[in-house]
Amino acid sequence: MLTLTDAERAIAAGEEGEGAATALRIVAESAQRLGAARLIPIASAHIDGCLYHGDSGTLFAEMLVARGARTRVRATLNVGALDLLRPNNVRLAGVPRAMALRLMRAYEALGCQPTWTCAPYQAGHRPAAGSDVAWGESNAVAFCNSVLGARTNRYGDFLDIACAIVGRAPYYGLHQAENRRATLLVDATMLPAALRAEDACWPVLGAWLGAVAGERVAVFDGLAAEATEERLKALGAAAAAGGAVALFHVAGVTPEAPTVEAILAEGAERMALTPAMLRTARACLSTATGDTINAVAIGSPHASEAEACALARLLGGRRVRVPFYLNTGRGVLARLQQRGLLRGLADSGVVLIADTCIVAAPILPEGGGVLLTNSAKFAHYAPGNTGYAVQYASLADCVESAVAGRLVRDESLWQ
Amino acid sequence: MSAALFPGEAEGALLVLTAPLSFWGGVAATTGAIVDPRHPQHGTCVAGRILVVPEPVGSSSSSAVLLELIRVGLAPAGIVLGRADAILVVGCLAAREMGWPAPPVLVMSGCAALPAGRARIAQDRLVLLPSEGS
Q1: B22 is known as an active-site residue
Q2: pTM of this structure
């Protein structure tokens, strides 16, 4: 049974405006249905509702604006359906384009920060370990919980903004310490060290986890030596796209798992990870066969400065022979510009996409074909959202393939 | 055991998902069809069905896809979840704030084993209806 405080009841009664009352109704009713006993204050929010899926989202956000709602905690914005810096990148036209822009502007009018990125944690939004927040965007949720140790559930569109407006969230799920313990122990010590040390292994680990874990919390043993922030980002994004993973631990690395024993729940299931299991998960990421590729995309989640620099290094000034899309946030774009890297990437034929990405907006060439990517998240969503079939490969293979104009993939690590 | 996550009544043919499905990237908001080619029920339309989702997964944008399906009249008639999950329910709560009729949502353990056929959602229960002619 949900109990509201006097202050919350006052908001519900409209004492802070109809917008805040609307948001409180959504938060409180969600809380009630999820079995939360109360609401808790939140430190920040990350808002996923600014991507256009049809006019309903725009009308909903404009309803909140019209009712006078304003966010009362820091709220960063996820991608929209438009590249506001390079408008010609997105083919959306007519009414949908106008409605997508109105949607983005409505979220700004609610007081959200126009970060337009699905990697807010690499754009300066890093809540403290142990703090409660309300984040949307499944990869951001996984990173926030797992790597930062802040506490959030998977907030769907609309509940995230409602929480930001009232500065509160339902107290349930991963806000409660007992639900953050691992009920699945994944022993990765049998994987060859060379495989663990390969970037392209980590999205596959995530895809495997998403498929077996559902929403369970897992702890990995045996990945401490190779885990980096970039790799954990890729693992979490893959696990969240393929499953409902909102939190995972890596013993010796992530903040809540100094050791396996520190975070393992009683009666947890144990699984030993073999190379064969990862080979199967890797094969599932590709829907195409053969060596044809019609486009290459990296940056889901949005590429970091480090990933963009790695791309520039691997290209080494060579030109690509198929359309190549680097998806990133405007913050990273600005830093790449400062470092003088944008010109070289453009000269190589790389198309820079900011504020949105190739699975969130019509960007890939019309007519479909095969998309090559190093992102498990792109591999997961591209077939349904773009009509392209996908092939999965490492960043280095993506670059070599783009330069060759056909798929060139190093299989040696996966034999 | 079942419980209502969003109240209402509905009747329709059951569509039991045989694999996890994210509405975003998995269901087209313009047609109501399952568009993820990896999904075994690729091509099936969710509109007007009692959609049974044993394992809610994937994108947090799924609430927005559901709200759009509701607005254009292509939403499932009712939704049965295998476990309580806020993402689709929030789509219904947003619809109510907009004054658009939203499908009822139940949570029901063991729902993956539901047979084909018609069913009705009434309050906090799912009632299987006899097939026509029997």
Answers
A1: no
A2: 0.94
**Residue pLDDT, tens place only, A166-212:** 999 999 999 999 999 999 999 999 999 999 999 999 999 999 999 99
Give the pLDDT confidence of B11-51 residue by residue, as tens digits. 999 999 999 888 888 999 999 999 988 899 999 999 999 99
B5 interaction partners in chain A (CB closer than 8 Å): 33
State residue B41 phi and psi, 5-degree precision: -105, 25
Contact A351, A322 (CB under 8 A): no
CB contact under 8 A, B86 and A154: yes
User: Residue B117: inside a domain, yes or no?
Assistant: yes
Within-domain flag for B22: yes
Domain that holds residue B106: 2-128
Number of domains in chain B: 1
Which of B22, B37, B84 is the closest to A34 by Cβ? B84
CB-based contact B71 A54, cutoff 8 Å: yes
Q: How far is Cα B2 from Cα A122, in angstroms, rounded to an integer?
A: 42
Nearest to A26 among B55, B71, B97 (CB): B97
Distances (CA, A) of A65 to A61, A79, A194, B80: 6, 20, 53, 33
In a domain, residue B134? The reply is no
This complex has an ipTM of 0.91
CATH number, domain of B48, equals: 3.50.30.10
Residue B133 included in any domain: no
